[in-house]
Write a structure and sequence with these properties.
alpha+beta; two-stranded antiparallel sheet; 4 helices; flat
Length: 135
């Protein structure tokens, strides 16, 4: 079992979603600030994946000053509601068979969710298998 600091987790989320680097998430912009996009290229596909944390950001803003911007402090306030032992960190369970911990309960309620996943073929042929050895 381990733990992650609430301040560090809030900073990581802001870093992943703050596309204009002003230190906060703007909820007024349509989907731009509440979505995180990834691109990955394999030999046969280019994959585009979009994740969203809108539910978390809206809850954080509503719990804060409701100005349409989410700050790291507002995110941390939502996360502290899941910190049962008051150590300013969210515990996670490590191995999958351990009972759910604070971070698992936070993820169940406010975790990222998949918005879209697209695979585009690159038209690269699959690798040719090697020739059998000569007799």
């Amino acid at each position: 079992m381990g733990s992650i600091s609430i301040a560090r987790l809030a900073a990581r989320l802001i870093g992943q979603y703050d596309h204009n680097y002003n230190g906060k998430i703007d909820l007024e912009k349509p989907n731009r600030e509440v979505e995180r996009r990834e691109q990955r290229q394999t030999m046969n596909y280019i994959e585009y994946t979009t994740w969203s944390s809108r539910k978390l950001f809206e809850a954080a803003d509503a719990q804060g000053d409701a100005d349409g911007f989410v700050t790291p402090d507002e995110l941390a306030a939502v996360m502290r509601a899941f910190d049962a032992n008051g150590d300013d960190a969210l515990d996670y369970r490590g191995w999958f068979w351990n009972p759910k911990q604070e971070l698992d309960r936070f993820d169940d309620q406010f975790g990222e969710h998949l918005v879209s996943h697209i695979q585009i073929p690159t038209n690269n042929p699959p690798p040719v298998p090697p020739l059998p050895p000569r007799p």
